[in-house]
Amino acid sequence: MVSDFFFPNMGGVEEHIYNLSQCLLQKGHKVVIMTHSYEDRVGVRYMTNGLKVYYLPIKVFYNQCVLPTMICNVPLIRYILIREHVEIIHGHSAFSALAHEAMLVGNLMGLKTVFTDHSLFGFADASAVITNKFIQISVADCNHCICVSHTGKENTVLRAKVDSRRVSVIPNAVDTYSFLPDPSQRSKSQITVVVVSRLVYRKGVDLTAQIIGDLCLKYKDICFLIAGDGPKRWLLEEIREKRGLQDRVTLLGSLEHSQVRNVLVKGDIFFEHIVD
């Protein structure tokens, strides 16, 4: 498993990689994770069930990603692949330069490569154009791609110009029973909408802020409970102040993973982020 995004950083990709690795370990497979260093977390660490994690001594370039040189880290990646007798390289996230670099090295070594695309991207802005060209080159020789939704598959096929027959859809698993709303924790006089997400542009926070203002104006019995933090938090704070919604929009900030369920069960509606 290779990605720039892994613990101690928190997010959906990080959770996905960890849980998938644990399931593979339980089935008897050997799993090794490769990511970059996080502050003083450098070298080899072991997690639950002996999950081995390589925190490579590579500096972060932007947004938790390493500089996409495609060649500078070849000796280090090659050494780990040989040392661990790796047969399959599974890269995660279109944004992860390390994942694409590891898949490239694996292809050159004759190893099987799999890529999971967790996100939706546009086609028009500069960032999307660069990322789409990058992923098109990266998955050209990838053995198979995985997307987490059918919409995601359509997006990936168009962006990466990959044959749709080489792309499978495996939805993220959710134990819905664990997140059933708890009537004892909900207001009987209001409809509570819960939002749990990183407050960044990619998660559709700009649209969320607009929707909050419009819905609160139209429906007097609706309120929002928002958990998460990020550079777009100011936008939610601004809409709350401008519209005078202090009593109807609650910003909880960052939460520990163990606290997320206790927030979700307080709502009548869970408002999924627009873009992942």
TrEMBL record:
<feature type="domain" description="PIGA GPI anchor biosynthesis">
    <location>
        <begin position="36"/>
        <end position="125"/>
    </location>
</feature>
<protein>
    <recommendedName>
        <fullName>phosphatidylinositol N-acetylglucosaminyltransferase</fullName>
        <ecNumber>2.4.1.198</ecNumber>
    </recommendedName>
</protein>
<dbReference type="GO" id="GO:0006506">
    <property type="term" value="P:GPI anchor biosynthetic process"/>
</dbReference>
<keyword id="KW-0808">Transferase</keyword>
<dbReference type="InterPro" id="IPR013234">
    <property type="entry name" value="PIGA_GPI_anchor_biosynthesis"/>
</dbReference>
<dbReference type="GO" id="GO:0000506">
    <property type="term" value="C:glycosylphosphatidylinositol-N-acetylglucosaminyltransferase (GPI-GnT) complex"/>
</dbReference>
<keyword id="KW-0337">GPI-anchor biosynthesis</keyword>
<feature type="domain" description="Glycosyl transferase family 1">
    <location>
        <begin position="184"/>
        <end position="271"/>
    </location>
</feature>
<comment type="pathway">
    <text>Glycolipid biosynthesis; glycosylphosphatidylinositol-anchor biosynthesis.</text>
</comment>
<dbReference type="InterPro" id="IPR001296">
    <property type="entry name" value="Glyco_trans_1"/>
</dbReference>
<keyword id="KW-0328">Glycosyltransferase</keyword>
<dbReference type="Pfam" id="PF08288">
    <property type="entry name" value="PIGA"/>
</dbReference>
<dbReference type="GO" id="GO:0017176">
    <property type="term" value="F:phosphatidylinositol N-acetylglucosaminyltransferase activity"/>
</dbReference>
<dbReference type="Pfam" id="PF00534">
    <property type="entry name" value="Glycos_transf_1"/>
</dbReference>
